[in-house]
Sequence to fold (221 residues):
Amino acid sequence: MGFGLERCLYEMNDALPCQSSLLGEEYVVEVKELLPALSNAAAKRSDSKHGPMDRHIAAFLGARMRSDIDRNLMQLNDSSQGAAMLAVLNLYAVLQYRLGPESLPGLAGWMGAVMAPVVAAFHGRQKRKELEKEIPKLVRKGSIVEIYNLLENIDEKVRDEHEFQFAQAQYHAAEEEIRQIITETEERAVEADRIGRQTAAVTGIIIAMITATISVISAVF
Fold:
């Protein structure tokens, strides 16, 4: 995505509009027209399960943007769905920040509908709930930039990872404690059985000795 024959198509013809089917009937020749066109097209789409990115849009951006975004385009092909969607969000946030418009409610809603894999990448259940509550607010504002800043907050990701590692350590410690309790219980059961057998044997010997003694005494008298 972002390269191949589609990239050749736009690199060799500067006047060719973006051929993406995601744009519907929107006519997009310049990069600044892309986000408003996607936002308009979003209002007419009933299917929002697939993100607002395809091979044609990726190639169109790669060929028409003034800065080199090939590294960003490579991230669109990440095997992780969450990482790939975050790359799409990153590209569109940069475009909105540089070219506007300030509000893109249709596109923001479209992006918000497909952010589940990105949210799921956070380990903390409470953090995921916070994000799920906050994203709709930013969608209503139409801000792709703010959605990106919310989901790609480095400090929050570091904190989430540290909390996850701490939780893992607690879990493993609890598992080890349970294992030790089970082991000790089994060892105590084995020891109790051994002592019980010894006690029974000694008791049996004592009873036999008493019985023999009584028998001898009875025989004498």
User: Anything to note?
Assistant: The mean pLDDT is 86.
